Amino acid sequence: MANTATNTQKAGFSGLAGKRAVITGGAGGLAVATAMRLAAEGVKTAMVDLNLDGATAVAEKINAAGGDASAFKVDVTSSASVDKMFEDAAAKMGGVDILVTCAGGYKSYANFEQIQEDDWDRVIALNLKSVFLCCKAALPYMKKNNWGRIINLGSIAGRSTSAGQSPAHYGTSKAGVSMLTQYVAKDVAGYGITVNTVAPSTTKTERVVNLMTPDKEAAFTKSTPMGRLAEPDDIVGIIVFLASEEARYITGATYDVNGGRLMLV
Question: Which of 87, 126, 197, 264 has its CA 20 to 30 A from that of 81?
Fold first, then answer.
């Protein structure tokens, strides 16, 4: 791919040009900003989502800007669907080197006693089981080259209950992502594969904006020392860094990116 940046940021991380990335939740949100930045670094991207039309639109946007992207339909809660997607994406790109798990979320807030069993199962599957399935499917491709980067999207909700209001099933699933990341990182460290979690605070993606009330936005902003909620571009830099050679000795870590809203000691 030509050295044509897909946004105003210049390529600046080493070892990324020519790599192949699978990005889940590829129809919107943080996945889009991540893919645009990775494309600026010379990475081929597979945008994968249950919403194939949305993922295709993102891939077309990247290609129009000089990148190399394709789109695939996947149900990240189904092992058969995930395995088939990785097979197809690897065939299209010539392999898989990087996995970024952006798929996740919840539909609406509910107090613990209001959460129904089917909603609990759905949120845990979307946010935690999906990471398990995608990591498991990605590893054989990475082991072939003794090189790989997995960046899982956690959340401030999985780090502490004191940083804001998220439903219990969502926070629990995101806490599980951080722990799952450590187990995977420990098992595959000898293959040159690093596995890390990025835990953002409330980020103004389309899904979050639709869920958030003005009162909640004001409260979250007030509780953030930097005085504003995160934009997608505020999160992308650490994701791309963790995919690069500069981060080759970092694994099993969770990075809190929250404008100071939560400070763990």
Answer: 197
